[in-house]
Amino acid sequence: MQQSFQNRIPKTSSLRRYLPILQWASSYQRSDLVGDLLAGSIVAIMLVPQAMAYALLAGLPPQVGLYASILPLIIYGLLGTSRTLAVGPVAIVSLLVASGVAPLTATDGSNLLQLALTLALLVAIIQTVMGLLRVGFVVNFMSHPVLSGFTSAAALVIGASQIKHLLGIRIPSGEFFDTVWHALTHLSESNPATLIIGLGSIAILSFFKNSLGKWLQKWGVAKHIALPIAKSAPLLVVLLGSLAVWLGQLDQTANVAIVGTVPAGLPSLTLPSFAPAVWQALLPTALVISFVGYMESIAVAKSLASKRRQKVEPNQELIALGIANLGAAFTGGYPVTGGFSRSVVNYDAGANTGLASVITAVLIALTVIFLTPLFYFLPNAVLAAIVLVAVAGLVDIATLRHVWHYNKADAASLLITFGAVLALGIENGILVGVATALLLHIWRTSKPHVAVVGRLPHSEIYRNVLRHQVETCPHVVAVRVDESLYFANTKFLEDTIWQLVYGSADVAAVVLIGTAVNHIDASALETLETLNHDLRDAGVTLYFAAIKGPVMDKLRDIGFVQQIGKDRFFMTTHDAMLTLNCWQNGNK
Amino acid sequence: MQQSFQNRIPKTSSLRRYLPILQWASSYQRSDLVGDLLAGSIVAIMLVPQAMAYALLAGLPPQVGLYASILPLIIYGLLGTSRTLAVGPVAIVSLLVASGVAPLTATDGSNLLQLALTLALLVAIIQTVMGLLRVGFVVNFMSHPVLSGFTSAAALVIGASQIKHLLGIRIPSGEFFDTVWHALTHLSESNPATLIIGLGSIAILSFFKNSLGKWLQKWGVAKHIALPIAKSAPLLVVLLGSLAVWLGQLDQTANVAIVGTVPAGLPSLTLPSFAPAVWQALLPTALVISFVGYMESIAVAKSLASKRRQKVEPNQELIALGIANLGAAFTGGYPVTGGFSRSVVNYDAGANTGLASVITAVLIALTVIFLTPLFYFLPNAVLAAIVLVAVAGLVDIATLRHVWHYNKADAASLLITFGAVLALGIENGILVGVATALLLHIWRTSKPHVAVVGRLPHSEIYRNVLRHQVETCPHVVAVRVDESLYFANTKFLEDTIWQLVYGSADVAAVVLIGTAVNHIDASALETLETLNHDLRDAGVTLYFAAIKGPVMDKLRDIGFVQQIGKDRFFMTTHDAMLTLNCWQNGNK
Fold it and tell me: How far is CA A332 from the centre of its chain?
């Protein structure tokens, strides 16, 4: 049987595995091109303003966001196993960049760009190495509640960081609560023109996001026309905002902050820092970006791929994102990953292959070469509005409510992560969250469900005495423990058994039922040896029933079965109870 | 049934719970006194030299060890639930004290005593609070392999710390490898008289420890005479060593280091430091002492109690040890706990109640009042020999061999802890060990055993296709996962299922079998929702079979069952396979 199951997994040559383009390029059809062209173009329309806005969020000049949207996208198009993932700057990674480089930035900001490049290089190394070592699974140590709490808090932090652009005031950099407090106490200093442009942009973006799509659908507009229109809102507010400033000379008359000169032309080759001290200082941030970026990316890639019964290969995805970041590091960009909203649009617009990603990159390159003068009058408030509307949806109350209802420990880890990110900052917050989730898991399994069982009358079925009307046997306690036995819970089991034994002078035997025990670690084994020994000293004999095959193999292998005595292990609970003379008339 | 099981646990009034002396004092019998007197006296004979030796190990004057053996023992006698535990200075806690106070000690050592008192106070607070909060179970997060690796490495570190006393040379304080290297390269500078006294003491102690007991038994010497003789070796070498120095004036002629003046009289009231900075600096050490000390203590207390079918109450033990340490903090002592070897002797000598502990304390008090002049000529090398022989048995190769054979992950955590303690020091080492064990546990459960199952012919029993000759069904994959589903393994399960689905275009249904799933956390629930959704998009239906009652309750409660559809949940795997038309002739 082993053979046939292995055959089910399609064989891939290693060249094809590491260069997924070979899988789709050879079978590329003309019909694929229509979807790729449309999707690539719509994503480019979204990406131009978003890339500039996210660069602003990261504390970088707007062109850095555009540069990060050229070579990385081409690389991902060639190496990625998802055919619809749209890679580029995203909000949370941009926030992480901002918080990571801020403490290292020289007062004149001269090294800011190089720090961002270095961060991209470190992320590239981490992700590629993780992919090659095939250890992508470690990102799973961040639980969904932790990720949800982190994302919600990060969205609030991002929102807070954009208030200054929206109000047109200066806010000294600081933690979340400081920023919000400062903004609230300086509301009256807002720049009216900036505020009007910002709020107007938010209104337009919200309308496009929430209502326009449905209206166009109701009016029967064809999808390939409706989709570009619905998704052009960021571009529209960019145009309207720039036009307003230019016509009204608002940058001079009303002191509206604008983007200013964006250099024209493709990025030149850039070099990140190779100073060990810089690497060491940026490493924690790079690790967090590598993990969080990958998780965001793989989640949407998997979800979209499954809709077409396609497959994404997690470790190759790490390599593809890693090398895309390498591209960003050497072409004036900053860390990138697969973004949720643009990927969904890419999919909806019919992207069939990585070519869509390449088309987006070409359009961004053309924008950088020819269109940057158009962005001179672009108000920062418009970019802030784009960020705010994008992250507003990330604050996730529904998950909290759901998780709270389902499992209080999970809800606690969500809330602790949320609070820690706001109070301790973005990186410490996520560390606290991950540690909390791990410890809560250990804590939960350290007090497993233990049931004393009895026999359902006239049967061989044993059930919890607290839940069922069952027959018990005064001199035998049959205990089922619903958890693997390992160091954190083994003492709990021991205490529980002693409590049952001490409770009655009649008890002469304890039967430990192993139907739910998937593993017994060395600590638990030692505890079982001690327990057996101590129970014997107390005049009580320990028996085992229904131990699973692989667990039994290990117990036999280490000599535990021989030490205890083979006759004290039974295939089933019923066998044990019969042998211990519990039911006088046998199998009645 | 609930009622009857609760009745099995004996009710104790809360006064009796917190003052266990009330349990034995009211029923104290004259026959108990013989055992208590003999045991208390023998333990005192052992404790006088050990207490001084361990104080030396902790870097403290010898009388501190004696002071720590008076009030704390009386307190434990009144509050402890173990009737045979012998509390006082022990080797590993003394080492922890040495490593914890060393970095804070003034160059003239003037604040050393106060730091030790403060450490005792902090340990008192931590243990008492843990006991009152009933969270003693958290000490279980240290697994047996971690504890074994820690103990072995600590024994080596202790041994290394005593070399200087044995050789009579100066060794600058440093980490383990530095100390050993320095000793090896300065062997030729040894003080011959000191070395002879030290090695002679080791020879005598080893003979008494390994051979004398058996000989006395063979010669038919009664136990109540043989035991005091066998256990008087430390006292004997103290007398012989002191005599040799006094007679030969070796302290002056041969430069043998001696204990010197030990102040006479009971300790006066002492005050620990209450400076927040000192508390903060000592807190990590205090935490480690609280945990390690409690673990050593509770292990031996439980083991001895079970032999007489008595009970120790873990949380009351924490309170008793905590208040014993409070006593140490205010009477010139340092942190104490229940020691292994003295407790076993106490038990063997027939200690019946806490009165034995009180008798030991009275004898130590009399020693401090009347006998301290006798210790003037005591060579440090004798105390070093006592420590060395005591810790030699702690290096534990057998556990490593056993664990290595049983479980490589456990063996790895043992070796990593061992190496980390030697290389990084005693406290960092234990932290590394605990973190390693937790992460290895998570790692193990993150890749659970997943079996594709088929039907044993002509039965309703389903078994792993790789292990048994079973019938499978081409359009249905039945998967059993042998682990609870939670955030660290949920993606692994998802990937495994997709691999099976992608491997064949025939698959139309996946049956997930939950017989070994004790818990599904919020992350796993979300993954199941996503998986169900994505599989549906791929034309595959997800079914569930044999989900456990409590898990099913939660899934129903959160609406998952209704969302998926009740008809997709089956009581047994066989029900599912029949409904999915796997076996054309039904239950053949």
Answer: 27
